[in-house]
Write a structure and sequence with these properties.
222 residues; Thrombin, subunit H; 14 strands; six-stranded antiparallel barrel; 2 helices; 13% helix; four-stranded antiparallel β-sheet
């Protein structure tokens, strides 16, 4: 039986989405302090990606693996919000563009089925499932800021999942997998995702900033 206690008796069980028919980006960020790995997801066909800020913080070189054949692309840090532990990257989308994941427009509720995709311990394209355990949680960003409205889930999230999407039953992104509560450093069934509404606000700022920079560069060349 697929229904959780929260959904039983309310209606048909939701259909479990398949893992997207395209590989999600695996990230590798190198800095003077070392190497950091994580996950991201495409939010626009022209090459915009979202990930966690702590994955790329201080990075001097960021590469993105978009396929399963080992091909990597350089990525540019376009913007971010350390207080929400989010970052926006830009890669060359190529002539065909990239397939983006939609951001969910509706808020999730406790008991909703959710699905996490990422690269835990370097195992790319790992797909796990669970439910929304709680909403409205507060967690602390790496810079000490409070991140509010966070989604708690029991979908398995481990090191390397950071920056990957938490999906609803329709395949839309409801959050960015960011942290876990764990006694041993691995999955204990308590994971946290920054909500999609926060991502939408960041993207609006990042794209506006990119447009302003492009306009300034164009004007300076006249």
């Amino acid at each position: 039986m697929c229904c959780t206690p929260f959904t039983a008796g309310i209606g048909p069980c939701p259909t479990t989405p398949r893992s997207p028919g395209f590989p999600l980006p695996a990230l590798d960020a190198r800095s003077a302090e070392g190497e950091s790995t994580g996950t991201g997801f495409v939010v626009s066909s022209d090459g915009l990606l979202v990930t966690n800020g702590h994955v790329v913080d201080g990075a001097q070189d960021i590469t993105v693996k978009l396929g399963t054949d080992g091909t990597t692309l350089p990525a540019q840090l376009l913007g971010g919000d350390p207080s929400q532990d989010l970052a926006v990257l830009q890669v060359d989308p190529g002539p065909g563009g990239l397939t983006a994941l939609p951001l969910a427009g509706d808020a999730v509720e406790v008991g909703d089925p959710v699905y996490a995709i990422g690269s835990p311990f370097g195992l790319s394209q790992t797909f796990t499932s669970g439910i929304v355990s709680a909403v409205g949680r507060d967690i602390q960003a790496p810079d000490g800021s409070a991140i509010t409205g966070v989604i708690q889930t029991d979908a398995a999230i481990n090191p390397g999942n950071s920056g990957g999407p938490l999906l609803d039953a329709s395949g839309a992104v409801v959050g960015v997998n960011s942290q876990i509560a764990s006694s041993g450093g691995g999955n204990d069934g308590i994971g946290f995702a920054v909500p999609a509404t926060t991502v939408q606000a960041l993207l609006a700022q990042a794209t506006a900033g990119a447009s302003a920079a492009a306009d300034a560069e164009s004007a300076s060349g006249i």
